[in-house]
Amino acid sequence: MNQPNIEGVVIRPLILNTDGRGWLIELFRTDELQPPISPLMSYVSMTKPGLLRGPHEHREQTDYFCFIGPSTFLVRLWDNRKDSRTFGAKIEIELGEHNKASVIVPPGVVHGYKNIGTVDGLMYNAPNRLYGGEGKDGPIDEIRYENIDGHKFSME
Questions:
Q1: Are 49 and 120 in contact (CB under 8 A)?
Q2: Rounded to whole angstroms, how far apart are CA atoms 136 and 114?
């Protein structure tokens, strides 16, 4: 897999271990993660064919996405950090059905994904912040870009 061109973004293939019973993928291991990746929660989301999630960015949260299929996702990332050596750089990659991978997305990197396959697709995330804070009683660390003009980030 090609190395990404955005500082702090890590794309790593997920290894499919198969046997007569089916398959198993290790989504993450703490001995393979480097700070600031220290998952505090995890979730799985299903995205229907043709639909989009994002784009948005976080001020403090690092996401640890795993695109596991069975559909294919078009994943787009854009470095929105003015102090980054890769400011403005973009990544576009197809992940999921035939290219299972994890993607570490640091704060300030705009990200979104679209199910470009024909079946429901599954994505797992293990971010290093609790959504809405302790007890879901805090602010949401999210800057959304779906309806903001002037940004050169689109999923279409």
A1: yes
A2: 27
Mean pLDDT by 10 residues, the chain (156 residues): 78 93 90 81 95 94 95 96 96 95 96 96 95 90 72 52
Q: What is the DSSP letter of 36?
A: T
Q: Which residues pair with 67 in a beta bridge?
A: 101, 123
Q: Where are the domains of the chain?
A: 10-17+24-130
Amino acid of residue 73:
F
Global pTM value: 0.88
- CATH annotation of 10-17+24-130: 2.60.120.10
- Kindly provide the b/e burial profile for residues 65-88, where b requires at least 16 CB atoms within 10 angstroms of the residue's own CB: bbbbbebbbbbbbbbbbeebebee
For residue 47, list its beta bridge partners.
121
The rounded distance, in Å, linking the Cα atoms of 23 and 4 is: 27
- What are the tokens at 46? 């299903």
